[in-house]
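To the team - PRP complex, inputs and output below.
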Amino acid sequence: MGHRPGRVLIAQEEIAERVRELGQALSRDYEGKDPLLVGALKGAVVFMADLMRAAEIPLATDFIAVGSYGGTTRSSGVVKITADLSVSIEDRHVVIVEDIIDTGRTISYLKRNLQTRRPASLRVMALLDKIERREVEVELEYVGFTIPNQFVVGYGLDYRGLYRNLPRIAALEEDPGA
Ligand code: PRP
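Output:
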């Protein structure tokens, strides 16, 4: 049985409005600090692109990619960096930009890893927080939406590599015809 995007959880306009607010929060909190936004590949790319344009302050961007050791899920809890940052973050005000926080294992690892590189400050900006699934306690300074425990796609989030390009966030549903 195939799967396809179904019910819309968060519409395009709703996302745009929330991203505008988050951009304003960044502008307010990081005025004069020239922050470095670190996007977690690949899911955060779409959110990052909109967020950075919603923040009306000078800022820099970089990306980092994370994967898991063994297996395809993060449930092992063992995370590794598959593509590292291209710049030093020492003494920089760093904001990790994530599309979704699920068990919390990825962000917890990323925070710990980046913290060892001596940034001036380190915060997390997550578009979606699936809080019911949390296994690891982690502080999220900025959250766009808290969502229920449902598999979602769109606006950067994928199912088997597909649907990242949907402009809205939708629940993945079984497609009996496929
Ligand atoms: C997603 C998401 C987070 C992580 C959250 O990445 O972007 O990095 O999972 O899950 P966790 O809180 O349980 O660790 P994914 O593995 O789907 O990779 P992608 O961003 O390349 O799609």
